């Protein structure tokens, strides 16, 4: 009888003991357990592919289900840095495209923000309409622009010739393709800079302007000596966002010119896509992806430094 | 063991257990009889065998695909197999196929195989499901399919060095010359017999901006296909007998001078980025007087809803050059992915799409495959949607056609290397230098990929 009694008590104690232990364990290690699902998600979705790309960049593999990757160390990186003129050209084109596109976007974006900062009739509607390009699907934009850019059947040349200018070749010539693509990028992303600049302008204090007007400053001086310096941190953030994306631009270039004509619009991203999925050279493409990551990282660091240093 | 439990024996020394065992075996044998005997008598072919399966196909936009998809309800009713598909532009479909097969998810069952581009590469990567066992299995192939009806050259185009058949041809594309019959009649011109004639005609009809004299593909990679005709016409070839680059042959430079010159002088602006979509549009809108490309693109020219020149198109064999009378030919087929989970059902689709009935239907509507018998089918003469001249030119093109692209591992990279040279030449580069650079790059590529 006593045997069964104590065993029953033991059974009663067991679940209670375990529950208590579990709650104490969770309490002590809460800081590890609660973020765990998110950490696992990030690990699988972001960290694993990045590590895989890094590992693949040290291999030679031609995308076959039958042959395995072959370890070749840093040979791919050696080829990129010293033996591939196509990569070098792509690098300069990527940087140039970014500079052209982001400069134009910033100038236009800040201009539009200054205009929309004042009150005028219909401001709400016009401001909403000007944000629309950012909302549209990039591929749809690219396809429509391809049609518009057609030298003989497209709308752009019709408009250009009706104003009296000679027709352009837009994306159909290697000298103008990159600029035509930059134009599409500017059209699509200026609203982003405009929004960020508008937010920055709205937060500016009014006192400096009042004292400047009293001191007899002109509108241009107000803009150049007060607005711009105060807006600089915000602007650098906007430029940073855009520059990171512009360096990696893929969708419009892929849809509109696929890197052509004559590789004139081949940026690093397009080149590595070609290497991977046209030439099946997975290892080499992975090393280019790592190189692109380094380029973007470098650009970001430079811009963040500019943010802190004075003019 | 107690002796008293030993079973009683019956009859000729057999235990009861033995009798029961024997009886059970006899009954089992009798019941299994039909199942044992049947495989020796092969299961008959049944279209409904894979009823209820679902397939996913990755196709690219082309008149032959349009024809197949139009008849798709007939297939679904015949077999009960549901077909889902995605149609992409040519270059993008090829890239997506690579992505799908590299990922190995098995989500894609069948795809349009651009054999002239991917034959060796996909075979080495183990991505084609060999069709030999399906063709030889009478329970999986309809009795009237007749694989031997396919021409030897189209069968060779789909067969790998190890004799495995990787795909079934759905269209065979010799390049031919398209011209505006009405303009030619008005000016008293006839299809050219030599390359000089071709140029003279283009020059005579070149009246920009209303009409341009000539158009052909300029887009890098795509332009390597019509380039094959020019190369053969000037007497050149891709590889030397020991499989090295043959680009140092003067035919390459002469051909590049001719091709880029024609496009520079007589083609619409922007031709440097034209694939067959843009060339066909320009021709169909009446902007260009002459064009050359694959014969299977002509079906859209005769479509009154899309083409302004329906009924006014003439078809002729491309002229002979210093290297002789040749044209280039490209074969595209339908293949089963080696990673598919529904291989037999996909085979049913492929054999339906390429059977005699569908091949005749496709030819009547202006797309030609690899079969021989369809050319003499009465429907083609009676109901053929394309003009008689097209059928005659196509048939003759098949006889003159040589395989347009080299059979190497990385055809795409060759097309990019030389396609780039052609684009640069169109934009004003010097052909001799461009060919020399291409020769160097091509040899380097062969060294690293032909291992």
Report on the structure:
- The complex is a heterodimer of chains A (311) and B (451).
- Chain A has two domains: 13-71, no CATH class; 78-308, MetI-like fold, CATH 1.10.3720.10.
- Chain A has helices at 2-28, 30-33, 36-56, 75-83, 85-117, 123-135, 138-148, 155-162, 177-202, 207-214, 219-247, 251-256, 268-277, 282-308; strands at residues 59-60, 70-71.
- Chain A is mostly helical and 311 residues long.
- Helices cover 75% and strands 1% of the residues of chain A.
- With 451 residues, chain B is of the alpha/beta class.
- Chain B has two domains: 47-172 and 330-398, 3-Layer(aba) Sandwich (D-Maltodextrin-Binding Protein, domain 2), CATH 3.40.190; 173-329 and 403-449, Periplasmic binding protein-like II (D-Maltodextrin-Binding Protein, domain 2, 3-Layer(aba) Sandwich), CATH 3.40.190.
- Helix content of chain B is 45%, strand content 13%.
- Chain B has 18 helices and ten strands.
- Chain B has helices at 16-37, 63-70, 72-79, 90-103, 115-124, 132-136, 152-158, 181-187, 195-204, 224-233, 250-266, 276-284, 343-353, 356-364, 378-383, 388-400, 411-426, 431-449; strands at 9-10, 14-15, 54-60, 82-88, 110-113, 168-180, 290-294, 313-316, 327-336, 401-403.
- In chain B, the strands form two sheets. In chain B, strands 3, 4, 5, 6, 7, 8, 9 and 10 form an eight-stranded mixed sheet that branches. Chain B has a two-stranded antiparallel sheet with strand order 1-2.
- In chain B, strand 1 and strand 2 form a beta hairpin.
- Chain B starts with 8 loop residues before the first strand and ends with a helix.
- At the A-B interface, helix 13 of A face helix 4, helix 12 and helix 17 of B.
């Amino acid at each position: 009888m006593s045997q069964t009694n104590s065993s029953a008590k033991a059974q009663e104690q067991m679940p209670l003991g375990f529950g208590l232990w579990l709650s104490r364990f969770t309490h002590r290690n809460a800081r590890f357990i609660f973020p765990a699902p998110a950490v696992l998600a990030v690990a699988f979705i972001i960290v694993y592919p990045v590590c895989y790309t890094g590992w693949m960049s040290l291999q030679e593999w031609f995308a076959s289900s039958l042959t395995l990757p072959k370890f070749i160390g840093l040979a791919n990186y050696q080829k990129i840095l010293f033996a591939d003129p196509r990569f070098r050209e792509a690098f300069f084109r990527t940087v140039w495209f970014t500079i052209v596109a982001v400069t134009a976007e910033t100038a236009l974006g800040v201009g539009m923000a200054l205009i929309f900062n004042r009150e005028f009739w219909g401001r709400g509607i016009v401001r909403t309409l000007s944000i629309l390009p950012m909302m549209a699907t990039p591929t749809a934009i690219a396809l429509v622009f391809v049609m518009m850019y057609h030298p003989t059947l497209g709308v752009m040349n019709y408009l250009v010739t009706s104003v009296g200018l000679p027709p352009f070749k837009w994306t159909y010539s290697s000298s103008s393709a990159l600029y035509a693509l930059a134009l599409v990028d500017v059209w699509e992303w200026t609203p982003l800079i405009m929004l960020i600049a508008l937010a920055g302008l709205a937060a500016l204090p009014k006192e400096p302007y009042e004292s400047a007007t009293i001191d007899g400053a002109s509108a241009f001086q107000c803009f150049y000596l007060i607005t711009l310096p105060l807006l600089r941190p915000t602007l650098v953030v906007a430029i940073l966002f855009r520059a990171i994306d512009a360096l990696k631009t893929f969708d419009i270039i892929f849809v509109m010119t696929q890197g052509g004509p004559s590789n004139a619009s081949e940026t690093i991203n397009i080149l590595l896509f070609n290497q991977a999925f046209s030439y099946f050279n997975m290892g080499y493409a992975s090393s280019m992806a790592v190189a692109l990551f380094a380029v973007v990282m470098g650009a970001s660091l430079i811009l963040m430094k500019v943010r802190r240093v004075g003019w | 063991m107690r002796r008293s439990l030993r079973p009683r024996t019956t009859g000729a020394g057999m235990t009861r257990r033995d009798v029961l065992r024997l009886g059970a075996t006899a009954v089992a044998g009798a019941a299994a009889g039909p199942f044992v005997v049947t495989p020796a008598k092969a299961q008959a072919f049944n279209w409904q065998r894979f009823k209820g399966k679902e397939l996913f196909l990755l196709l690219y936009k082309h008149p032959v695909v349009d024809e197949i998809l139009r008849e798709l309800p007939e297939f679904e009713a015949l077999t009960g197999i549901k077909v889902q598909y995605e149609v992409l532009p040519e270059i993008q479909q090829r890239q997506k196929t690579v992505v799908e097969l590299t990922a190995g998810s098995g989500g894609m069952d069948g795809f349009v195989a651009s054999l002239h581009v991917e034959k060796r590469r996909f075979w080495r990567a183990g991505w084609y499901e060999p069709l030999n066992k399906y063709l030889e299995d009478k329970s999986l192939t309809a009795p009237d399919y007749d694989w031997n009806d396919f021409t030897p050259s189209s069968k060779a185009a789909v067969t790998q060095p190890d004799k495995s058949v990787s795909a079934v041809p759905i269209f065979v594309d010799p390049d031919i010359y398209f011209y505006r019959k009405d303009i030619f009649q008005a000016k008293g011109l006839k299809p050219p017999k030599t390359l000089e004639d071709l140029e003279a005609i283009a020059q005579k009809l070149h009246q920009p901006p209303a009409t341009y004299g000539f158009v052909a593909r300029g887009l890098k990679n795509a332009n390597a296909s019509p380039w094959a005709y020019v190369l053969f016409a000037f007497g050149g070839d891709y590889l030397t007998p020991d499989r090295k680059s043959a680009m140092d042959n003067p035919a390459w430079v002469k051909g590049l001078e001719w091709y880029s010159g024609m496009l520079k002088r007589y083609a619409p602006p922007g031709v440097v980025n034209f694939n067959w979509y843009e060339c066909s549009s320009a021709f169909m809108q009446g902007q260009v007087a002459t064009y050359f490309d694959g014969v299977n693109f002509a079906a859209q020219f005769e479509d009154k809803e899309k083409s302004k020149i329906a009924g006014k198109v003439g078809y002729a064999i491309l002229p002979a050059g210093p290297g002789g009378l040749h044209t280039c030919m490209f074969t595209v087929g339908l293949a089963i992915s080696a990673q598919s989970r529904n291989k037999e059902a996909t085979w049913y689709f492929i054999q339906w799409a390429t059977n005699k009935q569908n091949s005749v239907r496709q030819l009547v509507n202006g797309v030609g495959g690899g079969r021989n018998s369809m050319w003499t089918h009465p429907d083609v003469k009676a109901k053929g949607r394309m003009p008689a001249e097209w059928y005659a030119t196509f048939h003759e093109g098949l006889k003159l056609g040589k395989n347009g692209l080299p059979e190497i591992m990385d055809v795409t990279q060759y097309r990019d290397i030389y396609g780039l040279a052609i684009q640069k030449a169109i934009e004003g580069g010097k052909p001799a230098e461009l060919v020399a650079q291409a020769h160097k790059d091509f040899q380097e590529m062969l060294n690293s990929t032909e291992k």
